[in-house]
Design a protein that fits this description.
The complex is a heterodimer of chains A (about 240) and B (about 375). By secondary structure, chain A is mainly α. Chain A is built from 10 helices and no strands. In chain A, helix 6 packs across helix 8 and helix 9 packs antiparallel against helix 10. The longest helix of chain A is centred in the N-terminal third of the chain and has 34 residues. Chain A is flat and about 75 Å long. In chain B, helix 5 packs across helix 7. The longest helix of chain B is centred in the middle third of the chain and has 18 residues. In chain B, helix 8 links the parallel strand 7 and strand 8. By secondary structure, chain B is of the alpha/beta class. Chain B has a 6-stranded mixed sheet with strand order 6-7-8-3-9-10, with helices on both faces. Chain B is elongated. The chains are: A mainly alpha (about 240), B alpha/beta (about 375). At the A-B interface, helix 7 and helix 8 of A face helix 2 and helix 4 of B.
Chain lengths: ~240, ~375
């Protein structure tokens, strides 16, 4: 139990340490007025919240789209479409995020929704693929046993296939979350805010403390989200599996 | 026909697209209520397909299926399956559900009350030889393979269905576990008397468990459908003979109960009788006498060669009896004990140990030459269309 707790707290402890080091380092500098405009609590907090909002909204949309779609593509009547849909999702992920965003912007303008749309396209694949794999790896003997006991197809899906696919689906969601956190950075190019703003400020204005603060905050946010995803995987995994 | 028919397959055929021959070709058979019927045959003969058409996991291409006289060929398939227990080789326990929840699947679908379900789960766990309080809340992976299959059987029996389909249920277990599971099934079946259809390719398992055996050949054609003893003593054709293989007589020993045989009767004397009485009894063509104690339990056998000129006490005469065999056992057990006994004879006793008669090698050979035992007249149940 203690070992487990230690392992559980390893990532938060590491992040705390990094933040302390960052804080001390930034404070050892005398900040000029440009730096002060970025490196203050209200500004940083607003960027983090924008970033999180975009990430979480994208992930919720991805789950809402990819899980039902994945389930559908494992049903006998739709199985044939699986390669096509996965192929499309693959293209979505292969296109460089910035490129996709720019193309979308040329067509539809700038803003939160455009960034959101690009993010969804970009992080759909892991959840879609893991949903399909998660359901297909369920032992056919279990679905046969379920049907043989008199369960309907729907009952077999909701009581057997989906619960047993949850660990694999969650692994996909975790991947999608991490992708969304990092790709949300480019939202700054379509005026959708986020931690990308800080980084771009740091580069444009050639202010090292700003650039480093933005980068470290982004990296630690990704690690934190991944850590939360891991927790969710542990706690939502069905017992006995 | 003493039994009423529980399952009837009528002219049932299964064709698969792109295959030149049907997997199951116009099969008709009746499965009597309360019987354990074995579907026996080589791999790919269609016996499992035939089984799965009974609960319509595989839908027949043509023909009709009756359950307790009711045509279920078009009945609601989910409701039908809740009336038929189903056990598969891979066991198929749901790993994310506790043992109790696994067993409760069908009762829950049938809308039983919580209390009734809990009681039923405990009853079934006890029936299959698992302690309810220790096993109820465990998960399948915490159980051994043999224990898992016991739960599989309990789950199939949960809603007390009249029919149980078992598709090579013990095929994946090791020989010792398999033997235990078979004994358990015999014990359970003696109390629940379900109509059981049991698929296997193991002739020994078929002989041990089956009230009747249907031997399938290609396209699910039934080569013979008869009680085990009849299959072994009167194989209907070369296919059955070759499938039964060598050692049919040895296998027959496993299906003949001692109580159904004509035992040799050696004169029985009391341990308190005199040597003279023993000498008298051994006159004529008697091979030996049996000495009994006050409770009529056999203690010693005495044969002519054991008698000496001088007298002596009866409690040192002849051979002490160390092995006896219960009349409920089979000739197979008797022969095994015979091979380990001195004097070429084994005493048969009843459940209280009282002397019933003698088994010798000659007696066993005589029994094997005589005709079928449990069923005096050959019975032909629903012969295949040839």
């Amino acid at each position: 139990m203690n070992k487990r707790l230690l392992r559980l707290l390893r990532v938060p402890a590491m992040l705390c340490l990094i933040w302390i080091v960052l804080f001390v380092w930034v404070n050892s500098h005398t900040l000029d007025s440009i730096e002060k405009r970025t490196l203050n609590a209200p500004y940083l907090q607003a960027r983090v919240l924008e970033h999180l909002r975009l990430t979480i909204a994208a992930t919720i949309l991805v789950v809402a789209i990819a899980v039902p779609l994945g389930v559908l593509l494992t049903r006998t009547f739709a199985k044939g479409f699986a390669p096509l849909v996965i192929g499309l999702a693959n293209i979505g992920q292969s296109v460089p995020a910035v490129g996709l965003l720019i193309l979308m912007t040329l067509q539809f303008g700038v803003g939160f929704n455009i960034a959101l749309f690009s993010l969804v396209v970009y992080s759909l694949l892991p959840v879609l693929r893991n949903t399909i794999v998660g359901i297909e790896q369920v032992d056919p003997a279990l679905t046969e046993a379920g049907l043989g006991l008199g369960m309907s197809r729907r009952m077999v899906l909701f009581r057997i296939e989906l619960p047993l696919a949850i660990p694999v689906i969650l692994a996909g969601v975790r991947t999608a979350l991490v992708i969304a956190v990092s790709v949300s950075t480019v939202a700054t190019f379509v005026n959708a805010g986020g931690l990308g703003d800080i980084i771009v400020n740091g580069i444009k204005l050639q202010r090292m403390p700003v650039l480093i603060t933005g980068s470290v905050m982004l990296a630690s946010l990704a690690l934190l989200i991944d850590w939360l995803g891991g927790l969710a995987e542990d706690y939502l995994r069905p017992k006995g599996v | 026909m003493p039994d009423s028919t529980m399952i009837r397959l009528e002219d049932v055929t299964k064709e698969y697209a792109g295959q030149p021959e049907p997997a199951v070709d116009h099969v008709t058979m009746d499965i009597p209520e309360g019987n354990l019927v074995i579907f026996l045959g080589p791999s790919g003969c269609g016996k499992t397909t035939t089984l799965k058409m009974i609960n319509r996991l595989i839908e027949p291409s043509s023909g009709r299926i009756f359950l307790a006289g009711e045509d279920v060929t078009r009945a609601d398939v989910n409701l039908l399956r809740r009336r038929i227990g189903y056990v598969i080789q891979q066991i198929g326990l749901f790993p994310h559900m506790s043992i109790a929840d696994n067993i409760a699947v069908v009762p829950k679908m049938l809308g039983w009350e919580r209390k009734k379900i809990d009681d039923r789960v405990d009853t079934l766990l006890e029936m299959v030889g698992l302690n309810p309080s220790t096993h109820r809340n465990r998960y399948p992976k915490q159980l051994s393979g043999g224990q898992q299959q016991r739960v599989g059987v309990a789950r199939a029996l949960a809603a007390d269905p009249p029919v149980l389909l078992m598709d090579e249920p013990f095929g994946a277990t090791d020989p010792i576990t398999r033997e235990h599971l078979q004994d358990e099934l015999i014990r359970i079946q003696a109390s629940v008397r379900k109509t059981i259809v049991f698929v296997t390719h193991d002739i020994d398992e078929a002989i041990k468990l089956g009230d009747r055996i249907a031997i399938f050949r290609e396209r699910s054609q039934i080569a013979q459908y008869a009680p085990p003893d009849e299959i072994l003593s009167h194989p209907a054709n070369d296919f059955v003979s070759s499938f039964v293989g060598v050692g049919a007589s040895l296998k027959r020993l496993q299906v003949i109960a001692i109580r159904n045989t004509q035992l040799e009767q050696w004169p029985a004397l009391s341990m308190t009788d005199s040597i003279a009485a023993v000498r008298d009894a051994l006159h004529g063509d008697k091979a030996g006498v049996v000495l009994l104690d006050e409770q009529n339990r056999p203690r010693r056998t005495v044969q002519s060669a054991d008698l000496t000129e001088t007298g002596g006490a009866l409690d040192t005469l002849g051979t002490p009896i160390t092995l006896t065999v219960d009349a409920q056992e089979t000739l197979h057990i008797a022969l095994d004990k015979l091979l380990n006994s001195e004097g070429g004879a084994v005493c048969v006793v009843d459940e209280r140990g009282v002397y019933q008669g003698i088994i010798t090698v000659e007696m066993i050979m005589r029994e094997l030459r005589s005709t079928s035992h449990q069923h005096a007249a050959p019975v032909h149940w629903g012969a295949a269309h040839e």
